[in-house]
Amino acid sequence: MQPSEPILRLRDVHVHFPIKGGVFKRTKDHVRAVDGVDLDVYKGEVLGLVGESGCGKTTLGKAILQLVRATGGSVTYHGDAGETELTTLDDAGLFPFRKRLQIVFQDPHSSLNPAYTIFGSLEDPLRHYGVRSRAERRKIVGDLLEAVNMRREAMDRYPHEFSGGQRQRIGIARALSIEPELIVCDEAVSALDVSIQAQVLQLLMDLKREKQLTYVFITHDLSVTEYLCDRIAVMYLGRIVELCDAEELFANTLHPYTEALLSAIPVADLDRKSERIVLEGDVPSPVNPPSGCPFHPRCRYAQDVCRTDVPALRPYRTAAGGEHLAACHLIDQPPAD
Amino acid sequence: MTDRTPGPDPELALSVRDLKTYIYANNRCNRALDGVSFDIHRGKTLCIVGESGCGKSVTAASILQLLPELSRIEEGEIVYHGAEGPVNIERLKRNGRRMRAIRGKEIAMIFQDPMTALNPVYSIGFQIKEMLLYHTRLGKRARHAKAIDLLRSMGIPLPEKRVREYPHLYSGGMRQRAMIAIAMSCDPRILIADEPTTALDVTIQAQIFELMDTLKREQGTAIMLITHDMGVVAELADDVAVMYMGQIVEAGPVGQVLRNPLHPYTRALLESIPVLGRGKNQQIRAIPGQTPDPYDRPTGCQFAERCRYRVDACAEMPPETQVSSSHRVRCWRHREFMADAAE
């Protein structure tokens, strides 16, 4: 499935955080958390965003929602009323778009206010977006809780009374409350036990089918993305290094980083043991990224050209005729452009 | 029941028999471990796998006598087979001389979170040398040289410089290597690793696994690895024990348990995770419900209320049954599953 209509279009998005120091708190340097990302999110798809910690995937997710403002580039929202550039809007201007774009956070323990009942947490967005009568809000919150397989009565209880999996479902209910089109799931299942993780994954898929949602699914777990996602973007040091359909990524890996990442994942299948490619060292600091290809100090194929030139993200033809983007100098097939 | 005759096996490093550890809080009792038995062998890795709250970490804490206050080993035995013959750990005083000589020197441990396990006000070198000072007779210079050697063998670059640095200057993966360096400083016979890579990225996790495999091969260290990830089990384990609610529900060589799981919980665990390489159409099946309240456990099989194969017999606790010389399971219906597998 490849619905052609984009809902979001990111062009050359940069998010740089200043590092301040010295007596006068002058800006000394920048953390280049997101460093030039082009990305389209299509209506109705599940886009996976994977990479190691510190690669900028969470910052990119927040930049999509304007929770972190991009320091460069554009984020365009394509709605019924035409295109809107989000990065230039102020808070009041963003208000109608916050309803369309929502987020589920990683940690179900810190993302719910412990002093509010579940109803208190879930009615807030409804009140802001115009549901005036309390009786109606109670009805909607009850319906939402049932939609995430919880009991209506749960709304009058407090977060500490629920387990991690239940709290994560409440977080999903809150994101759904104002009927968004796109939900960013930031490591939404990573903090959960395996048996509970499967329950939440199935819930997310069921909700997607029912409500025609679009997900941007941020995770470090490639096994989950393979199961869940239509397309996958692999990030390294603030850039996308590979982007294509999920099946294509696993069948025909082009970038050496993705190859190493895939081989490092422990697979619960004794018949599928492959060679473990062990990367040397750690992810470099995003304050001083290496020259050339950001991956070259850890890449086992690195050559001179990798040390000097930054590879562009270029399209390659897949066997199925689709598009497979990768940023590497050493791919031995001609790019399609 | 399990075979209670370990015999004079020179490779046996530790045997735990029918261990019961209870934790008390608010006048209630949590039977955190309820009859756990297993062996650890030299040069082998035993993986203990289960969800949070199943008793994996309490098992490790019992072996090292690091249990919290208001908890105690009620029954059973933990026998450490050291160079000087077997020692019953459960009879030693928690902080007595014998226990302190074993803890750290003979049985070492790596903790889950290297940030909280390392002391931020002492240099990494000091924390390694502290172990050598307590447990060996090395002189000051020799200790310093050994600390550098250890860091080098863990793959830390520039060990001469790094040995003087403090934990905050290390990255997560390097901190975990420093932890392993501390644990391995006195050449322990047994290394207990409690979720050593949960806080780390997969590429760093692969580095740590490579290191642990090398230790096992070259020094014959017996490793007990606690994890919740079946992938890690498939990757590293020689033997595996699956725990649920304070009991081992299935244990055996990794090939037998993963290829031919006989307990419904093991099966459910394997079916509940997406496996890389099986594509989008794989079926994953969530385990319904959640683990019971540890202070109010069911009387029969602990897994019964979440189990698809439940029958009336499950209201009673099934015994541990030996299905082959090394494979045992705690389920009333394991014979049917064996017959299914044989078809």
The secondary structure category of chain A is: alpha/beta
**Amount of helix of chain A:** 25-40%
> How do the strands of the widest beta sheet of chain A line up side by side?
6-7-8-3-9-10-12-11
Using the coordinates shown, work out and report the CATH topology of the largest domain in chain A: Rossmann fold
Mean pLDDT figure of chain B: 89
The CATH superfamily title of the largest domain in chain B: P-loop containing nucleotide triphosphate hydrolases
Based on Cα principal axes, name the global outline of chain B.
globular
Q: What oligomeric state is this? A: heterodimer
Number of strands of chain A: 12
Strand content of chain A: 25-35%
GO cellular component, one term (chain B): plasma membrane
Domain ABC transporter (chain B): 14-270
Keywords (chain B): ATP-binding, Cell inner membrane, Cell membrane, Membrane, Nucleotide-binding, Translocase, Transport
Family (chain B): Belongs to the ABC transporter superfamily.
Protein described:
The complex is a heterodimer of chains A (337) and B (343). Chain A has 337 residues and is an alpha/beta fold. In chain A, 29% of the residues lie in helices and 26% in strands. With 343 residues, chain B is α/β, with parallel strands linked by helices. Chain B folds into two domains: 41-67 and 96-106 and 193-342, P-loop containing nucleotide triphosphate hydrolases (Rossmann fold); 113-187, no CATH class. Chain B is built from twelve helices and twelve strands. In chain B, the strands form two sheets. In chain B, strands 6-7-8-3-9-10-12-11 form an eight-stranded mixed sheet, with helices on both faces. In chain B, strand 1 and strand 2 (28-41) form a beta hairpin. The mean pLDDT of chain B is 89. Classes of the chains: A alpha/beta (337), B alpha/beta (343). Chain B: Residues 14-270 form the ABC transporter domain.
